[in-house]
Amino acid sequence: MQAVAKIKAGPGLNLIDALIPKPKANELLLKIKACSICGTDVHIYNWENPWDSKIKPPMIIGHEGFGEVVEIGKAVRGWEIGDYASPESHFHCGKCDMCLSGHANVCRNMLGLGMGGANGTYAEYVVVPTKSALKTDKKISPEVGTLQEPFGNAVYTVDEGHVKDKTVAVFGMGPIGIMAIAAAKALGAEMVVGVGGSSIHKELAKKMGADIVIDRKNEAVIERIMEETDNKGIDVFLEMSGAESAIMQGFEAVKKGGSVVLLGLPTKQITIDWSKYLVLKDLAIKGVYGRKIWDTWQLSSELITSGKVDLAKLITHRYKLSEFEKGFEVMKSGNCGKVVMFPK
Ligand code: ZN
Questions:
Q1: Would you call 146 a catalytic residue per the annotation?
Q2: Are 234 and 252 in contact (CB under 8 A)?
Q3: Which of 8, 38, 154, 170 has its CA 20 to 30 A from that of 264?
Q4: Who wins on pLDDT, 193 or 267?
Q5: How far is the CA of 233 from the centre of ligand 1 (A)?
Q6: pTM for the complete prediction?
């Protein structure tokens, strides 16, 4: 089968001819109908820290995907040939104390689909353990189906912000930030402000429901947020940027007693005024990692199937899997929403 893999340590990816994998007793074989590129895949392409130590080449890359079940392991129950499924990209063990206490998203023995441990979705076929596969409504198109995984990051973040009837600011308007804007609107936020940079992201954020979009490079962010909130500050700050200066603005913009949910990953240690922001503002602060298995996925598919969130509007580029270099090029330019690829 055709696949895109890291064949040796170093920058770049290659189109390879690989064997179709065989599902083990508790696994499904999915025929991939669509897969999509995440910022993490670009870091993997570039061979940046920490991926240069997590991935042992050769490995097929890709952790966002959607496919049809074409073969079923001997011990599998509750699945049929022809079902549609999306993989949860964090394969949990199901046995450790984290998994047993409802925190499978931070499993101690986690394997990353296409990110270290398991071959990924940039292929015609992939095997997925049934405990890491979500049966997906056939009404969902493959190109939206593959976006359920990143959408889950956004939905988990928004859900932890308890945004109903609140004013919300999303800092960072990459695709997941824009998905968070859409999810916050769908979950009843009174006003959603998107804060970011590039023009295509501002345009997409408006399309996906942002009430106000602030250009971080050219506008006075705090002043504008104070103006829009009668000088009160924002109720909920969702951090999706990982950029130190944006994080500081978010902590400044959030009101006393407000909520902060952190998803963006700074690449270096950052400094914060601990007393001013973390103690004296009396904030509720929550970090999120991945998606709640399966609570987040259920809420995500509800938002998609009900039509409350239309993720298709966020797709700006579509390529054949064999044209993956074009997809990575546009991802590196930053001048895109979601980039979706289709194996032959
Ligand atoms: Zn575990």
A1: no
A2: no
A3: 8
A4: 193
A5: 40
A6: 0.97
